[in-house]
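P.,

For your records, the input lines for the assembly:
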Amino acid sequence: MWQFFHKLGSPKWFYGIATRFMPWLLVAGLMLLLAGLVWGLAFAPKDYLQGNSYRIIFIHVPTAFLAQSMYIMMAAAGVVTLVWRMKLADVFVKAVAPVGLVFTFLSLFTGAVWGKPTWGTWWIWDARLTSMLILLFLYGGVIALDRAINDEKSAARAVAVLVLVGVVNIPIIKYSVEWWNTLHQPATLKLTEEPSMPTEMLVPLLLSIAGLYLLFGWLACLRMKTEILVREQRTRWVKDMIMAGGR
Amino acid sequence: MNAKVDAVLKPVETGVGPVQAMIAVFSRDVRVAFRQRQDLLNPLLFFVMVVTLFPLGVSPEVEFLRQSGAGILWVAALLSVLLSLDHLFRHDFDDGTLEQLVLQPQPLFLLVLAKTLAHWMLTGLPLVLLTPILGIMVHLEGNSIAILCLTLLIGTPVLSLIGAIGAALTLGLRSAGVLLSLLIIPLYIPVLIFGTGTVAAASEGAPVAGYLALMGAFLVLALTLAPFASAAALRISMSNS
Amino acid sequence: MSEPLLQAINLECERDERLLFQNLSFSILPGTVTRVEGPNGTGKTTLLRILAGLNDAWSGDLLWCGEPRSRQRESFLRNTLYLGHRPGIKPLLTPMENLRALMAGRRPVSDKLLSQALAGTGLAGFERVPCRNLSAGQQRRVALARLLIADEPLWLLDEVFTAIDASGVQAIEALLQQRAAEGGAVLVTTHHDLQLPGMNRITLGQGQNHEC
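C-alpha cells returned:
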C-alpha cells in the first residue's frame, strides 16, 4: 500500500487544509450574507417602479450569479482533470455539480416568485429565466452522466469533457436566447437594471453575493471532504484518522 | 533509439495520409448504411410522423401551421437526428471496428469527423431534401420553405457534430439513448433558435443574410471544435469498456 | 541481449474500485512470444488493452523503444497490431471489404494481397459473401487474415484461438513463431494450451492482495 501513497498526497493535504479553514468560511460567509440581507430587506430604499417586491433581488441575483460561476469553476476543474489528472479536480466537479443544480433551481424559483407581482404570472419566457432554465438542464446532464458511469476516473474525465463543451456553449446560448427574446417579446420589463441601480441597493447586493460565495466555499469543502473519504476509504491515512477518532 | 530495434521498426510514413483514411472511413460507413436501407428510412419516417402530430394534436388551421411550421419542422428534424445518433458509434463499438479505428496511426479527430460527415449525409441531408414537401403540407410560403431548407442545410451538420460528442460520451452505458438526449438537447438550443428565427425574420420580410452568416459561424465552430471533443470522449469511453 | 520493443514499469490498474494489478514490470523483447496468463477476471484483457493504447486508466510507465509511449504515439500505432475479443468485422460487409477497411488507414495494400490473405486463412471463395452469412470461426478467420499481411513488428492478440479449429490453431502458432523469428514480438492471452519453445510468461492474479 505504501507505493500507492504518494499519489494520495494532495487529497490528504486538502482534507487537512479544508478542515482548518472551514469554520472561518462559515462564520465570515454567514456574517456577510446576514448583513447583506438585513440591509437589503429592511433598510435599502424602495424601488420607484416595483416597490418592495424587488427586494427578492438580494436572494435571486446572488444565487443566479453563483450558479453561473460554479459552472465556470467546474469547467476550470475539468481542464485540470483532463490535462493533469488531478484527483482533487475530479472531486471538486463531483461535489459541486449538485450544489450548482440547487442554486440554479433556487434562482429560478426566486425569479418566479418575483415574476408574480411584477408580471402577474409565475413564469415568463424572459431571456434571463430561460437562460437559467437551460443552465439547469446543463447541470442535470452533468449529474446524469456522472451517475451513469461506474468507474470513477472515467466518469470524471467524461464529465470534464461535457462541462467544457457546455462552457463553450454558455455564451452562445445566452446570446441566442437574448436574440430570441427580442424577436418574440420586444418590450418586456427587465428583471434587473444594474446600470441604474443606486448605491444603497448595490452595496447590500454585493455583500450578499460575497457572503454566498464564502458559504458556497464552505459547502464545497464539506462535500469534497465527504467525497474524499469515500474515495480514499481504503487508504492508510483515512483508516488512521478514523482509528484516532479524528474529525 | 537503439539501432537493433530500429531495424525492426517500420517507418511511420506509409503513403496513407489522413485524407485517404478519412475517405475510407466515410465510404465504409456509407456502404454499411446502404446494405441496411431500412435504417436509413427510419429517421425520415420519424420526421414525417412527428410533423404530422402537430396538425392532429394542436390545430390544422392554416394560420397556425403557417406561423409554427418552421418551428415544427426544425424540432422534428432535431429529434430525428437525435434519435439516429445513438447508432453513430454503437455498432462499431459492438463489433470491434471502433477499437481498430482508434488504433489507426491517424489523427482520431479526423476519422471521427469523417464518421460524423457520413452520418450527416445519411440522416441530415435526406431530412433537408424532404423538407419542401412537408413545408407545403404545413402551408409555408415558397420563400419561407427555401429559407427553412437553407437553415436546415447549415444547421443539421451542427446537430450531427455536437451530437457526436454526446454519442461518444454515452457509448456503452445503460440507457444511453435517453442520457444522450439529456446531454445534447441544451446544446442544440442556439441552432434551433437561429434556425427558426431566421425563417421568422424572412417571413416578415427582414434581411436574413446576417443570420445565415451567424449560423455558418456556428457550423464552422462546430466543425473545428466538436471533432476534438468527440475524439477525447471516444478515448474515455474506450478506456471504460 | 537486445533493447525491448515495449517496456512496462510498475504498471498499476484499478477498475471499478478493484485493484487489478500493481508493480507489474516486464519487457517485450524482439524475437519473443509472451503469453499472459491468469484466471478469469485478473485483468489479462485489460492489460492487453492498456498495452495497445485503448485503455488509459493506468499509472506507471510504458516505454516504446526506450522512450515514453505517449511521445511516440505515431510510431507505436504504426508498428503495433492489436486483435481483440471483438474481431472488428462488420457483418454487413464482405471479407474483402472488411479487410480493405481495416488496412485503409494503415498502409496501402493491393486487393491481390488481400485475397491471398483470405485464401491463406481458408476463405477462398467467400470473398464476396457478407460476413453475417459466415460462421463464427470464419468471421474470426477474416480478422486473422490480417496476421498474414501484417508488417507490424509487435502483435497484441487477445484470445485469438477462440472458435478456431485444430488446423487453424496450428497455422496461427506457426505465424506467431515466424513473427518472433523475423525479429518481431508477440503477446497473447489465451485459454488454449499454447506451448511454444522459448515462450515467456506474464502471470497475473498472484500475490496481489489488498493487504495494507
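Two observations worth noting. Residues 166-181 of chain C form the longest helix (16 residues). Helices of chain C lie at 44-52, 73-78, 95-104, 111-120, 136-149, 166-181.

Regards
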